[in-house]
Amino acid sequence: MQQSSTIILGIESSCDDTAAAIIRDGKILANVVANQDVHKAYGGVVPELASRAHQQNIVPVVDAALKKANIDKSEITAIAFTNGPGLLGSLLVGSSFAKAFSLAMNIPLIEVNHMQGHILAHFIREEEKSNLKDPVMNTGTAGIPEFPFICLTVSGGHTQIVKVTDYFKMEVLGETIDDAAGEAFDKVAKMLNIPYPGGPLLDKHAQQGNPNTFSFPHPKVPDLNYSFSGLKTSVLYFLKKELNNNPDFITENLNDICAAVQKTIVDILLIELKKAIEQTGITTIALAGGVSANSELRKQFNELQKEGITTYIPKFEYCTDNAAMIAITGYYHFLSQQFTKQSTTPNARMKI
């Protein structure tokens, strides 16, 4: 008798993206994301508006994922959802939906740590590419790292170096003591009058600029930790000084400023990562989180291959917040029979 498939419905609602994904036996069938344009007018995510948008989007997004996967809700084996870290109101929408769905369908409920999800995004498999080498990543068969590996997780809210020895055995070796790298990108973009979301647009401008035209200092932080608040202050004072001399300074030098800031952030990230490689002796490294979509970071990260280091980067769609990473993490929880009670509550500051 053939064993039935394990089908996981994943729900992601930690910030301003409402997402649902379907994974069957570790392979992705559907990954649907609804973005929230309402925040552009405010230059950043407004938590209350994010919560309301999640309430509007979550049912249509789940419905779209089921249809794309050609799966009926009765076939779902378990439902996984992001329970933290993130915006509390946003997390509540996803967790409430997941709890209701679990009760209604009488299936297991699985809570997922958002940051673990980013790391385990590397284990998402695709039907048609499961045995092929990804020419973009250039990292080996199926782009799946072997344990142990080091993961540099970089997003708008987090920057961490994590030692990963198993699916759920992770140790944070270093992290930001103040602002995350993604926040630094967005805040500097705002100083430069680049529309929200600023990080990706700053990247586009940087690709047309000279990173050596200007320079910014690197912070001195103990151990393998990061700090980006000082960089933001440095850029702010730099711009004020230059604008006093030339009111059109930003307009005339936008591409070069973006390139210099981007180079500084990437250099800071990789300096600590190289220290972690040296200290642990682990030469398999992975990149994760929304900022891993940054072109310069991806380029410099893969340059480490010239030093005998094996590098892994997820596809773009699995870098930013998405439900596929929640579904795959839920899948491995399911295999270990790690389920969640209905009494669970979201944790905005959940740790790995």
Describe what this molecule looks like in 3D:
The chain is an alpha/beta fold and 352 residues long. The chain is 39% helix and 18% strand. The protein has helices at 47-69, 88-105, 114-120, 181-191, 198-206, 229-245, 249-280, 295-303, 324-335; strands spanning 7-12, 18-24, 27-34, 78-84, 109-113, 125-126, 149-154, 159-166, 169-175, 284-288, 310-312. Residues 129-142 have low confidence and may be disordered.
What's the CATH class label of the largest domain?
Alpha Beta
Computed over alpha carbons, the radius of gyration is 21 Å
Please give the largest β-sheet: 6 strands, mixed
Unreliable residue runs:
129-142
Mean pLDDT: 93
What is the strand tally?
A: 11
Helix content: 25-40%
**N-to-C SSE string, H for helix and E for strand:** EEEHEHEHEEEEHHHHEHEH
Coarse shape: globular
Distance between the first and last residues' Cα:
39 Å
Name the beta content range: 15-25%
Q: Supply the CATH architecture of the largest domain.
A: 2-Layer Sandwich
CATH level 4 superfamily of the largest domain: ATPase, nucleotide binding domain
Domain module tally? 2
